[in-house]
Request: fold
Amino acid sequence: MTFMESIQTVFQKYAVFEGRARRSEYWWFYLGYAVVNGVLSALIRAVGSGGVGTFLSIISGIIALGCLVPTIAVTTRRLHDTGKSGWWQLLYLTCIGSIVILIFCALDSQPGDNQYGPNPKGM
Reply:
C-alpha cells in the first residue's frame, strides 16, 4: 500500500472500527499525520503568537480533532490485524501504554482469518 492509498483508505474508513488494517496503512497514515503536525508546529514557532500564529494554532487544532476518530479507528483495525481487541488502546491512559501499543502495532499480521475478519494481505 502506498502513502496516498493509505491516507485515502484511512479517511474512507473514517469511523470504521471493524476489520483489519495492514502495517503499511497504519504507519503511512501516522507518518503523514506526524509530518503535517510537525510542519504546522514549526510554522507556529516561527511566526510567534501573533495573528498568524493564532490562526495556525486554530488550524492545527482543527486538524487534530479531525484526525482523532480516524486515528483511533485505524489503530483499532491494526490491533485487530494482530489478533488484539481495540480496547487495548485504553493502555494509552497508563504510563507505559504507548510503548505497548507501539509494539503491538509493529507486529506482523495474524496469518489467515481471525475473529476480526480476513487477512488484508490475502494470506
